[in-house]
Amino acid sequence: MRAAVIVFPGSNCDRDMAVALRAAGADVTMVWHKDAEIGNVDLVAVPGGFSFGDYLRCGAIAAQSPVCGALRRHVDRGGYALGVCNGFQVLTETGLLPGALMRNAGLKFVCRSVALTVATADSAFTRGYAAGESIALPVAHHDGAYTADDATLAHLRDTDLIAFTYGSNFNGSRADIAGVLSENRRVLGMMPHPERAVDAATGSTAGVALFQGLVRQLADA
Ligand SMILES: NC(=O)CC[C@H](N)C(=O)O
Q1: Residue 135 belongs to what domain range?
Q2: Mean pLDDT in each 10-residue stretch from start to end of the chain (221 residues)?
Q3: Which residues contact 136 (CB under 8 A, 6 or more apart)?
Q4: Ordered alpha helix ranges (H), 36-85
Q5: H helix and E strand count, the chain
Q6: Distance CA 52, CA 153 (A)
Q7: For the domain that residue 97 is a member of, what is the CATH number?
Q8: Which residue, 120, 125, 132, 136, is most buried by CB atoms nearer than 10 A?
Q9: Domain tally for the chain?
């Protein structure tokens, strides 16, 4: 399975993402934001961090990068994409996922492990978990309050596109949403960091099932 990890000025989880994907068996290349082509890969990962210093709105400047044109073509062709934290913000800013990430309720940067529920196991990203399973993953963000209008929320619920919800809603996300899937279920955006939970030495292995499930499904495809 071939994966590309996009690197923006201010990305700080790009190498963690590459390590997590490689540990699961993926062949990973790094792609700079100025590159207009990503190449022939199965998955594009958009990592966490503070792209362009979070100026304007988190992810808004990154979404205008040349590489995001290539990301859009990849998704339009049916390719898979995973956006974590700032990557989720980039995916909403590019319109590849619905909704937006707003400033946390409480206006504080929150950096800790949080409880999540796997809301659906029906995706390449979540097939390694059981639907309804509780897991804990780290979060580290100040703009993680997921918001969407009522019609969008109803559609996400009705079509099983909510991937993860928070056990305790610490950031003000509507419907406790921590991650959502695209219509074709091949794009996932999530605020918690599975790539920071792939090694017991750094506290948790709860993210391993996401990367292993993904690599297994794409290797079979
Ligand atoms: N860890 C991250 O990706 C941070 C995301 C974003 N810059 C925020 O703080 O909301």
Answers
A1: 2-220
A2: 98 98 98 96 98 96 98 98 98 98 96 98 98 98 98 98 98 98 98 98 95 93 71
A3: 113, 114, 115, 116, 197, 204, 206
A4: 66-76
A5: 5, 11
A6: 29
A7: 3.40.50.880
A8: 125
A9: 1
Strands (E), the chain: 2-7, 27-32, 43-46, 80-84, 100-102, 110-118, 134-141, 145-147, 162-166, 177-181, 187-190
Atom of ligand 1 minimally distant from the CA of 50: 7
Q: Please indicate whether residue 85 is annotated as part of the active site.
A: yes
> Do the beta carbons of residue 99 and residue 147 sit within 8 Å?
yes
Tokens of 87: 């990557």
Give the pLDDT confidence score for residue 80 in this predicted structure: 98
In this prediction, residue 220 carries a pLDDT of 78
pTM for this entry: 0.97
193 is an active site residue: yes
Half-sphere exposure of 17 (CA within 13 A, CB side): 29
